[in-house]
C-alpha cells in the first residue's frame, strides 16, 4: 500500500503548426491564449473639425488684420493738420488732400519749364 499520491504528467508534442481552434478555446489555463485585438481606428471627425476651426481662426485673423488694425494704428498717431492758405478743403484722416498724398516742394533750381507743345 502506498500512502503517497501518484502524480501523472501529461506531455504534448510542440509543433510549429498553429491550430486556429486553439485561440478559440474557452478553457481556463494557467497562461491565457493571446487573442488578436483590432487596432482602434483614428477618429477622422476630430481631425476635420480641428482643421475647420483652425482655418476659421486664420481667416478671421487675416480679415481682422486687414480691416481693423490700420484704423486702430491711425487713431494712435496724432493727427497732422496741414493747412493750405486760401484753400478751405481739409486733409483726410490719412493725410490726403483731394485724394493726393502730401509731398515736399521741389527746390527752385530743380524746376523745369513745361508747356504743351514743347518737346
Protein model, in words:
This protein is mainly alpha-helical. The protein has helices at residues 44-67, 69-76. The radius of gyration is 45 Å and the shape is rod-shaped.
| Class computed from helices, strands and strand pairing | mainly alpha
List the helices and strands in order.
HH
Number of helices: 2
Low-confidence stretches: none
- Output the radius of gyration: 45 Å
Identify the overall geometry: rod-shaped
Largest sheet descriptor: none
How much of the sequence lies in strands comes to: under 5%
Number of strands: 0
What structural keywords apply?
rod-shaped, 2 helices, 119 residues, mainly alpha, single chain, 27% helix
What is the strand and helix layout of this fold?
Elements: H1 44-67, H2 69-76
